[in-house]
């Protein structure tokens, strides 16, 4: 008898055994997909990991439906890496598999299929079965795979559908297809030959008999004197009340030069940069230091201040590995910066750069998957968010983790709850590759690892071009309010700085780490604050939509006209968010163009791209935003950053609050003055003497590091202790309370280490489920694997208690 062992894309810890024929047995290789029946009537795409002849003892092995691949589409290293993730992060191997594979490669009976209607194919080329499916989809918009099984009256429809998806006849539903095309803006400038006084008189001579052209040129002078920024053709025509023909004539005469600004000033044409990148001396020595460190260690941390030119060092390093024909993985925390980075890397590496993240369509993701599998030149450099870690690399040489301190590298829901930075180090070891972590504000964990000599450390402490670090002005809010120097949420100092910056034609970023208009609406008569009916949080007020919204579950209601408790109409807002800042600044600077970047304005498909583009093209003067602004964006004309209120971050109830506040403020501040001159940062706070604020002001990373590390040791937190957080959820409050207590007691009696809880978290109910947490703190150098096994055993016995079985427990290892 012959069997194949497979991983199912379900939250199941075990692998499953299916029966195969002898020829199938000989054909199947590790990493091939196999359609298998599971449960009563479902079909899933599973992954073969082994063939063997051991009949399972606990159940009777079913037969497979069909082998879906001719060759493996996952690699042995990949599967080994998943197994590590599953063990380390205490989750089902099936969870990792499902998370790793693009869903288009994982057809199952519940997948929803729809017709593309625009594929380039001829109906007569379809087989009978293919035609049946095609025809059914002309009548009905979408079909589940289960429906198709009935239509063609065959069980093995997955290969058929896969083929139709591959040829573009069908797609999985909910896909995005368009690729983003940056908007090109047309600018003009005076040809450099007219720069001098002498040139000017030549110019006037040339235009003696062309009155209309002369008018435009004069308008150009006037505009450049007042605006102090590049002049678009559109603006010039509006201002001079002329037309494009006249502008064109001036361009033909070589009086004006036209140029386009796309994303990046480095490149105006969209072509690959042929001039090689010149590293500064400081960059060069950092580059050498990284290479030296790689000769001894797998991981190196590049601690380079904001705008020190880390990206350029990455580019040099990538060149090295490309020349050895290795694959390179570039991990980024956020889609927003991916956009800018892709453009920057494409300037150097052109077609070799591929992008992999969730905003891309399934088909595009499958394409990258296959290119990576075959080590195709087209995807030699892969840029992506954390999930790119799961691609089938065949010859990986280097992983770069940029902004390594970002918490978005940790997946919190659903399982696998892995940290991409740490999982990258493991993946690199499997490939004998190297890892470069980069940040201006490294995580305590990574910096600590350099101090233990586990990771190399390379420091770059000056900005590129020798621009000085931004000057930080602290504003004491208490004093300003007392002396009536506030206009809305703006201090006189901040307003003066904004006025000055705008008058120089430079741009401003205003940071407020909270979206919406105001956090809450409060009744001035009885103090009632409307809460979410499903979660225990107050609703956030959004003025533009005149709504109250829950940021946890998305619940919304129209803004009430009176208090629901006492019917008073005297309602007031408390606190403030980006929306309110945007409105205030619009009133204060009516002629400035204001933009806003937060979750509410970047929701659309290309939300980020649009706002970043507009800001980069200087169509926006003042950009208001949340922490999205703190993530490695590079704008060359921003010279002022205002942090509206530093205190909400500082007093977040979280052991990382000070570290995060330092990182966030330093990163936002780092957007100022990146190109030519020193930038300014205004921090408004009630606590100007707070250590963290002082550390930000003085750019004193090591001060922050040492202080926080000391606290972590005293209070038993990472990096000294590993945290495992158990979260229990149930709709029944009493049952949850009891179950959490049971689990806590067994854990704390069994484990020789601190076990805390069961705690009611700050937000103790979401979507009508009550929540309790238990925190286990495993001392450094304690047998981690054994402890996890013990914890898993206790969790299994908890699950075996009939009354508690319905309580959902999630395990979060290295909780962030
Ligand atoms: P970081 O990632 O360290 O914050 P960047 O790599 O974004 O810094 O560099 C800051 C700015 O300086 C960018 O606009 C970049 O183009 C420019 N820059 C840095 N190094 C160089 C270089 N060697 N040659 C030209 N421009 C550079
Ligand atoms: Zn009231
Ligand atoms: Zn809610």
From TrEMBL:
Zn(2+) 1 binds at residues 523, 526, 563, 566. Pfam families: DEAD, Helicase_C, PriA_3primeBD, PriA_C, Zn_ribbon_PriA. Its EC number is 5.6.2.4. One of its GO terms (biological process) is double-strand break repair. InterPro entries: DEAD/DEAH_box_helicase_dom, Helicase_ATP-bd, Helicase_C-like, P-loop_NTPase, PriA, PriA_3primeBD, PriA_3primeBD_sf, PriA_C. Residues 536-713 form the Helicase C-terminal domain. CDD domains: DEXHc_priA, SF2_C_priA. NCBIfam families: priA. Initiates the restart of stalled replication forks, which reloads the replicative helicase on sites other than the origin of replication. Recognizes and binds to abandoned replication forks and remodels them to uncover a helicase loading site. Promotes assembly of the primosome at these replication forks. This is Replication restart protein PriA. The gene is priA.
